[in-house]
Specification:
The protein has seven helices and 20 strands. It is α/β, with parallel strands linked by helices and 378 residues long. The radius of gyration is 22 Å and the shape is globular. 41% of the residues are buried.
């Protein structure tokens, strides 16, 4: 059955990195692999109400921002979203995505005017999760194909640090795995030796296998320095870090404070955080294992709260906890501009956004990191 096709001009990008166009009847098209400025023929593959998902049949006029992807599995692997556009265009798209979310969803006029980068769009990932599967007579290792649990065989990934690519090549050479395995590989300043360690501005952080740490170490340093600037903690002030993980932000921001407390629900991460504080001889920093939303804060009233929640953002109870604590400043780190904007709106009666910073933590993907400073209206 012949599919109906349309000639469209790609105007921008969706939050997932697809090109966006609009049909004459008002329907919005999300086109995978399309570039702003492309004129292309597309075919609709699925539709939800007035939003359609389409694929490119042919490119009639390529955009000036289009480049030839430099990875042989880019079209089928689920890892990258932007290898078909210039890196400069990717940065523009990410900055616009954050600013649009803040304006449209949070209702604030303040905009970020730059996006910080570590200067390396490839070779930055310090962590990878490989999957294995039986394909024909061979067991292969690689990543999931986009939006499936089918394994795309991968022998080299340009996003990964070279040590992880070396480990991937060894997996292929030795074939010491069976179908259905999940293989995690992390690298730090101490190499691939567990437990992994990473050093940022003289502070060393140890982390267990399941503990969170940013996947881009160089960009993480840019982020933490910006968050420390926003927190601006004096020697007589106190810090609360919720969702603190292995204590990276607690130690980084709270090293000069009077007192800092990290709250984390993952017990192994808390143990790592306590060890990291002990090794850094920061005796004024403590950690507790608790749910950030249910934790009994008692009489503790921090001057600043830093929060780096999961992609889903903060729960209503966590927002209420922050409002109850009533800090002077909130440094909010987020990897999802939409949930960040939602939470800012929830805080907007009591806090005003005074600074916005965007960081390219995940080059060649549609994901983006940002940090905002909220200041109390009281």
């Amino acid at each position: 059955m012949e599919r109906e096709t349309y000639i469209v001009s790609i105007k921008d990008y969706s939050s997932g990195g697809e090109g966006v166009a609009r049909l004459e009847d008002g329907r919005v098209l999300f086109v995978k692999g399309a570039t702003r400025g492309d004129v292309c023929e597309v075919a609709i593959v699925s539709q939800r109400q007035r939003i359609c998902f389409a694929e490119i049949v042919r490119i009639i006029t390529p955009s000036e921002f289009r480049v030839t992807p430099d990875c042989p599995v880019y079209s089928i692997c689920g890892g990258c979203d932007f290898r078909h556009i210039t890196y400069e265009e990717e940065l523009r798209a990410k900055l616009k995505r954050v600013n649009d979310a803040l304006k449209r969803l949070a209702g604030i006029s303040l905009q970020a005017d730059e996006i910080l980068t570590a200067g390396k769009p490839d070779g930055y990932r310090n962590k990878a999760v490989f999957h294995t599967a039986r394909q024909g007579k061979e067991t292969v290792v690689g990543f999931y194909r986009a939006k499936t649990n089918d394994v795309c065989p991968v022998e080299y990934c340009p996003l990964l640090r070279e040590e992880i690519n070396d480990a991937l090549r060894e997996l292929w050479d030795k074939k010491q795995f069976s179908a259905g395995e999940k293989i995690r590989v992390r690298v730090g300043s101490n190499g691939l030796s567990p437990p992994i360690e990473e050093t940022l501005d003289g502070l060393t952080f140890r982390m267990s296998e399941d503990s969170f740490f940013q996947v881009n170490t160089d960009a993480a340093l840019l982020l933490y320095r910006k968050a420390k600037q926003y927190a601006a903690l004096g020697k007589d002030e106190t810090l609360l870090d919720i969702y603190c993980g292995v204590g990276t932000l607690t130690l980084f921001l709270g090293s000069d404070a009077k007192f800092a407390l990290g709250v984390e629900s993952n017990l192994s991460a808390v143990k790592d955080a306590e060890m990291n504080a002990k090794n850094a001889k920061l005796n004024h920093i403590e950690f507790i294992c608790a749910d950030a939303a249910k934790w009994d804060s008692g009489d503790f009233k921090p001057d600043c709260v830093v929060t780096d929640p999961p992609r889903a953002g903060m729960s209503t109870k966590a927002i209420e906890k922050i409002l109850h604590l009533s800090p002077k400043r909130i440094a909010y780190i987020s990897c999802d501009p939409a949930t960040l904007a939602r939470d800012i709106k929830r805080l907007s009666n009591d806090y005003t956004v005074s600074e916005v910073c965007v960081i390219d933590m995940f080059p060649r993907t549609a994901n983006v990191e940002c940090c905002v400073l909220l200041v109390s209206n009281r």
